[in-house]
């Protein structure tokens, strides 16, 4: 019989832990949201340009985010078993990995930029997108360092410091966007380029703000002082890289589906691409909000993994899924209600608003599977089970989702709507496959009275 008292306690714990994360997760994506809204006021070409730039940058952003997320369950597990020395070691190695990744993507971007003209996009759109992309990628250097620190504090269950830094950075980005994009306070109007410049500046200051808060706190300072280059060792480096790397691969498959959908949408012209970006930007907000509950689940499950309490682990995962599905059900209803209102925040072109509204109806359909898949994958990450979820997301997003998107859009001639049907198929498949994995492992933990992942996976 279900233990409703324990479930209720887990639900309350998830909410309490997730509240700062909600603001933080929203802050993570609001930089790109504000870029879209403000640049959209300049016209369809500019909006399509930032759409292309964000579609490519999102791959780096999400992969980098995935790499940094490998630290959170490791810190949570070490904190759960009272191993404070390991926390500093994991932090040191995670920061090194994050920095190397950021530098690599800057180099990769410079090498691949000339190939953007071969994607079948409007040349004017690509010309505007390239400077924005360059600045956004450079901004990943301070942002990856920030993500390392944020994942560390999140793993300790102290999520407010990351929230405060993200909110400050987001507010600064909006102000700088207004100044640089439209040319205010005596600054030359920069358009799309100004959006990239404001992102770079705000992320540098955001990192500095987090460090200022942390170094003035007795809660974090000891870990930061202990986090040194001398603590970079092969064993913790491999552990962080393995967990973060596979998490990044899983996230790469998901973002590849959405980025590929943007490129495919560009085959239909500027208007569908702009409408697609508006709709995608709107649903990204609901996704980032529900992912806060999922991350809270990762933290709670990670702590129970450290104390070897499979019973609380299972209820922590269940509570994260219940809250995520409930929230995304509400989000779906809101999307249907505001399908023509929300696009007006981005652009005033009636044809673009109408098409974006039609796409948002399809987006409302995949809200529930989207919420479920992010919650269950995060639950599995809490027990450091990342290899099978990565494989399942490859099947769901690349094999099924992308194939269905191409088939319905081009072969069955459903156009832009066909691409979004592919998104529904990909997200739903991921949710079902990973949910099956979580229940199999948790049932084995109950039957065998063990929480050891190697033992559970081998059976």
Key words describing this protein structure:
single chain, 459 residues, mainly alpha
Description of the structure:
This protein is an all-alpha fold. The chain has one domain. 83% of the residues lie in helices and 0% in strands. It has 17 helices and no strands. It has helices at 4-40, 44-69, 71-80, 84-112, 123-138, 140-155, 160-182, 192-215, 221-226, 234-265, 270-307, 310-337, 350-365, 367-382, 387-411, 416-448, 453-458. Helix 2 crosses helix 6 and helix 10 (234-265) runs antiparallel to helix 16 (416-448). The longest helix is centred in the middle third of the chain and has 38 residues, at 270-307. The protein starts with a helix and ends with a helix. The mean pLDDT is 85.
Poorly predicted tracts of residues: none
Cα gyration radius (Å)? 21 Å
**Average of per-residue pLDDT values:** 85
Q: Strand count, sense and closure of the main sheet?
A: none
Q: Percent helix among the residues?
A: over 70%
Query: Which structural class should the secondary elements be placed in?
Result: mainly alpha
Q: Please indicate the count of domains.
A: 1
Percent strand:
under 5%
H/E element string? HHHHHHHHHHHHHHHHH
Tally the helices: 17
Kindly, what is the distance between the CA atoms of the first and last residues, rounded to a whole number of angstroms? 25 Å
Gross morphology: globular
Number of strands: 0
List the helices and strands and how they pair.
Elements: H1 4-40, H2 44-69, H3 71-80, H4 84-112, H5 123-138, H6 140-155, H7 160-182, H8 192-215, H9 221-226, H10 234-265, H11 270-307, H12 310-337, H13 350-365, H14 367-382, H15 387-411, H16 416-448, H17 453-458
Helix pairs in contact: 1-2, 1-7, 1-8, 1-11, 1-12, 2-4, 2-5, 2-6, 2-10, 2-11, 3-4, 3-6, 3-11, 4-5, 4-6, 4-10, 5-8, 6-8, 7-8, 10-11, 10-15, 10-16, 11-12, 11-13, 11-14, 12-13, 12-14, 13-16, 14-16, 15-16
């Amino acid at each position: 019989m279900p233990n409703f008292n324990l479930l209720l306690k887990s639900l309350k714990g998830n909410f309490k832990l997730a509240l700062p994360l909600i603001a933080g997760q929203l802050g993570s994506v609001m930089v790109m949201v504000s870029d879209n809204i403000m640049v959209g006021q300049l016209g369809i070409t500019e909006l399509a340009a930032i759409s292309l730039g964000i579609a490519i940058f999102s791959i780096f952003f999400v992969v980098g985010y995935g790499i940094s997320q490998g630290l959170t369950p490791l810190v949570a597990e070490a904190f759960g078993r009272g191993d404070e020395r390991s926390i500093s070691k994991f932090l040191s190695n995670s920061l090194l990995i994050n920095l190397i990744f950021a530098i690599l993507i800057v180099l990769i971007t410079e090498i691949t930029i000339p190939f953007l003209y071969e994607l079948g996009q409007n040349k004017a759109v690509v010309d505007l997108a390239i400077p924005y992309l360059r600045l956004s990628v450079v901004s990943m250097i301070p942002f990856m360092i920030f993500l390392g620190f944020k994942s560390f504090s999140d793993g300790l269950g102290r999520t407010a410091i990351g929230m405060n830094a993200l909110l400050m950075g987001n507010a600064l980005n909006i102000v700088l966007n207004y100044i640089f994009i439209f040319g205010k306070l005596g600054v030359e109007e920069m358009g799309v380029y100004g959006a990239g410049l404001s992102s770079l500046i705000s992320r540098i200051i955001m990192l500095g703000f987090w460090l200022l808060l942390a170094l003035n706190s007795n809660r974090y300072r000891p870990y930061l002082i202990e986090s040194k280059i001398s603590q970079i060792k092969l064993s913790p480096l491999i552990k962080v890289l393995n967990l973060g790397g596979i998490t990044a691969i899983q996230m790469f498959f998901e973002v590849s589906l959405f980025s590929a959908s943007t490129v495919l949408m560009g085959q239909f012209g500027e208007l569908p691409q702009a409408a697609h970006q508006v709709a995608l930007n709107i649903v990204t907000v609901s996704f980032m909000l529900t992912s806060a509950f999922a991350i809270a689940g990762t933290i709670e499950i990670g702590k129970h993994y450290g104390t070897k309490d499979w019973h609380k682990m299972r209820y922590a995962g269940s509570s994260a899924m219940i809250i995520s599905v409930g929230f995304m059900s509400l989000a779906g209803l809101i999307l249907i209600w505001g399908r023509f209102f929300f696009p007006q925040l981005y652009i005033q072109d009636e044809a673009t608003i109408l098409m974006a509204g039609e796409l948002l109806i399809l987006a409302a359909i995949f809200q529930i599977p989207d919420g479920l898949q992010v919650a269950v994958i995060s639950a599995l990450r809490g027990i450091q089970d990342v290899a099978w979820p990565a494989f399942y997301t490859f099947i769901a997003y690349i094999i099924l989702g992308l194939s269905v998107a191409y088939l319905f859009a081009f072969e069955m001639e459903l156009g832009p709507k066909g691409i979004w049907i592919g998104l529904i198929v990909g997200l739903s498949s991921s949710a079902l496959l990973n949910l099956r994995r979580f229940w199999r492992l948790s049932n084995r933990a109950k039957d065998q009275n063990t929480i050891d992942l190697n033992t559970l996976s081998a059976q």
